[in-house]
């Protein structure tokens, strides 16, 4: 799937799907017009029939208005069905673009920034906030355009068929008074709308964090404290939602009042025209129901515009992710003018050499260099153990070597040593592999977890790398073979099994340079010995950096680098 590029504004999203949105607006207007025509013709026909029944109207033509009523009913039904299809398709496409853009932006972040993301808050933005954005079109743009268009068409019809003086009350009451009232309700209810969105986000974040950290909550006896926190957040959310509902109720009530006032004023003028013989009775009935049909389209506008502030608040929460700092901006506050080239080896018979010159790095906002003037050479085929106390920059160095971070000062250079004894810098990112301390396996089949590394790998290739990773016996016990299901975070596997599956996935890439981040953490002695044997065989012809707190439990290495020094 192609990852969408981040958009600059909500307008970009709308413009990207402008054809669907325009078609939706036109269908909304058509369905509203057909509904009002149906109502107005019915008013004319009912009034004319009543007058004809008492002998006040002679020569009633029932066929023309009857045909018009049937046509309006058919058009209204068809256009409403088509409008639902088109508007929802447009909205779903926009939301899909937005979710893909959000994911793409998160995927572009350096690993250390991804790990710092609060999962509960991010989940809320992906689900709750994105879902609220469908209101921008379905709840505001479509109905507002429909109400305005219907008002202009209805006023034009009254002015053309009856008298322009009968159109003014409708125009003033809707385009002026209704719009002003809706803006006022939206403005006054904006604070409650904003607090409601933030309250929902805080509640969801608290729930997700509590559930994910349930073991720690139970171990530290924080159950009552967390329960009180969630109850407090829930009560606050209910209060804010109650306020928003009160503003919606007030807006609807004021809209209905203005609608009634419009009808009374228009009918008062119409009755005077009837008494003067300027219009007849059936047209007065048509006028009344036409006014009712047009003004009813405005009843949802105050609530819709008030909810628009929730949509804007949701967009304000999404936008920092969608338009977050780029990779370079996030990690390179003091880059030198020349960025070191990190390049790739295409000739696999040549051997990869890494040279680090006066490397320094500090994270944005920090006044301390995590790595300070490091000089290092990793010879082709060499295995180096990187040790040091926590916070000394071991994982940061790994991110720098992988290109996830860029040096504040100094350089990282990659060279190829060829068979003829020459070597030189290479032009693209080298073939590298990273085995994390807590490798991520997904809720999916074993085959799909492995094919993340090589989507086109055959079943036989997958079985082969499982054997190389030391999972032959385990795999033979699985009745479903490659279709064996792996739970989220591999909770149905042991620590060693999960580590080996991640290693098998890394083997599919077959990188030249390998970084192992604490490959032995959390393993019992027997499992650790088995993992080390597998790694020693696989790393025999590769260059490797092994990050470890326990070098005595690590795979074989040639020398040690201590960052504490």
Report on this model:
The N terminus is likely disordered. Helix 6 packs antiparallel against helix 12. 60% of the residues lie in helices and 10% in strands. It has 565 residues and is of the alpha/beta class. Helix 19 links the parallel strand 9 and strand 10. The chain has 19 helices and 11 strands.
Condensed summary:
Helices cover 60% and strands 10% of the residues. Strands 6-9-10-3-11 form a five-stranded parallel beta sheet, with helices on both faces.
Uncertain regions: pLDDT < 50 for 5+ in a row?
Answer: 1-8, 325-350
The CATH architecture of the domain at 10-324 can be given as Up-down Bundle
- Largest sheet entry: 5 strands, parallel
Beta-strand residue fraction: 5-15%
Sheet/helix structural class: alpha/beta
**Ends: how far apart?**
46 Å
Helix content: 55-70%
CATH class (first level) name of the domain at 10-324: Mainly Alpha
The CATH superfamily of the domain at 10-324 bears the name ABC transporter type 1, transmembrane domain
The helix/strand series, from N terminus to C terminus, equals HHHHHHHHHHHHHEEEHEEEEHHHEHEHEE
- CATH topology assignment of the domain at 10-324: ABC transporter transmembrane region fold
Q: If strands are numbered along the chain, what order do they take across the biggest sheet?
A: 6-9-10-3-11
Query: What shape does the CA trace take?
Result: elongated
Helix tally equals 19
**How many strands in all?**
11
The Rg value, from CA coordinates, equals: 35 Å
């Amino acid at each position: 799937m192609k990852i969408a590029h981040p958009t600059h504004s909500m307008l970009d999203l709308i413009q990207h799907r402008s054809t669907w949105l325009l078609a939706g607006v036109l269908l909304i207007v058509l369905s509203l017009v057909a509904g009002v025509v149906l109502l107005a013709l019915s008013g004319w026909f009912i009034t004319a029939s009543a007058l004809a029944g008492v002998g006040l109207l002679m020569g009633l033509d029932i066929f023309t208005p009857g045909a018009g009523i049937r046509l309006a009913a058919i058009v209204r039904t068809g256009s409403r069905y088509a409008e639902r299809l088109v508007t929802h398709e447009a909205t779903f496409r926009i939301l899909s673009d937005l979710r893909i853009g959000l994911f793409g932006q998160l995927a572009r972040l350096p690993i250390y920034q991804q790990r710092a993301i609060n999962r509960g808050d991010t989940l809320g933005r992906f689900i709750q906030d994105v879902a609220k954005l469908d209101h921008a079109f379905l709840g505001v743009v479509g109905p507002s355009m429909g109400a305005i268009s219907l008002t202009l068409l209805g006023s034009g019809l009254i002015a053309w068929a009856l008298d322009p003086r009968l159109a003014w009350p409708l125009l003033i009451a809707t385009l002026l008074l209704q719009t002003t009232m809706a803006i006022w309700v939206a403005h006054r209810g904006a604070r409650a709308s904003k607090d409601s969105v933030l309250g929902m986000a805080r509640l969801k974040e608290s729930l997700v964090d509590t559930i994910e950290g349930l073991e720690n909550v139970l171990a530290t006896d924080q159950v009552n404290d967390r329960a009180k926190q969630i109850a407090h957040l829930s009560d606050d959310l209910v209060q804010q939602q109650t306020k928003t509902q009160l503003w919606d109720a007030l807006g609807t009530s004021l809209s209905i009042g203005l609608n009634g006032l419009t009808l009374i004023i228009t009918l008062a003028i119409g009755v005077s025209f009837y008494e003067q013989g300027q219009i007849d009775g059936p047209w007065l009935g048509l006028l009344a129901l036409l006014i009712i049909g047009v003004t009813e389209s405005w009843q949802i506008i105050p609530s819709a515009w008030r909810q628009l502030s929730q949509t804007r608040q949701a967009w304000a929460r999404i936008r920092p992710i969608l338009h977050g700092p780029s990779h370079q901006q996030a990690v390179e506050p003091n880059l030198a003018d020349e960025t070191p080239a990190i390049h790739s080896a295409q000739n696999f018979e040549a051997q990869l050499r890494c040279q680090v010159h006066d490397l320094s790095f500090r994270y944005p906002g920090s006044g301390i260099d995590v790595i300070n003037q490091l000089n290092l050479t990793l010879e082709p085929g060499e295995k180096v153990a990187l040790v040091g106390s926590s916070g000394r920059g071991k994982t940061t160095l790994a991110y720098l070597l992988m290109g996830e971070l860029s040096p504040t000062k100094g350089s990282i250079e990659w060279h190829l040593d060829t068979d003829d004894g020459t070597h030189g810098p290479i032009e693209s990112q080298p073939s590298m592999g990273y085995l994390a301390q807590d490798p991520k396996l997904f809720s999916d089949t074993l085959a799909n977890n492995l094919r993340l590394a090589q989507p086109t790998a055959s079943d036989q290739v997958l079985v082969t790398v499982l054997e190389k990773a030391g999972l032959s016996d385990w795999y033979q016990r699985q009745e479903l073979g490659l279709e064996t299901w792996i739970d989220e975070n591999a909770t149905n596997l042991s620590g060693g099994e999960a580590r080996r599956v991640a290693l098998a996935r890394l083997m599919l890439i077959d990188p030249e340079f390998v970084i192992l981040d604490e490959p032995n953490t959390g393993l019992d002695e027997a499992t650790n010995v088995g993992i080390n044997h597998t790694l020693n065989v696989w790393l025999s012809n590769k260059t490797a950096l092994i990050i470890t707190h326990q070098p005595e439990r690590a795979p074989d290495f040639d020398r040690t680098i201590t960052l504490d020094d």
